[in-house]
Amino acid sequence: VQLVESGGESVQEGASLKLSCAVSGLTTYPENCMAWFRQAEGKEREGVAGIAERDGSTFYGASVKGRFTIRHDVAKHMLYLEMNGLKFDDTAMYYCAADEYNLGLDRSYTYWGQGTQVTVS
Known about the structure:
The protein contains no helices and 11 strands.
């Protein structure tokens, strides 16, 4: 399984940004789940958003709810994170994650990408 993130960059507060994650090699199971996490310097990894394969249901961390949107294009094998109203506190390395089971925003996902840096100033 390979997850490759892209789209991170330096932006000003209030800006919008879209992160992408190319997914390959993931076997399709009914309970597949994909998510975005982030880790700021000196802080623990935090769940940002997730989406369940079974019914397309989405879930978000409290700090981003209403500002971020997760989307999964199954046909293109792509996961996206659309971020609006970016704040200084959103600065972090953002990681794409996947698992055969719906883990919500628990950090024990099996598959991880290398991350893409988002800096808000």
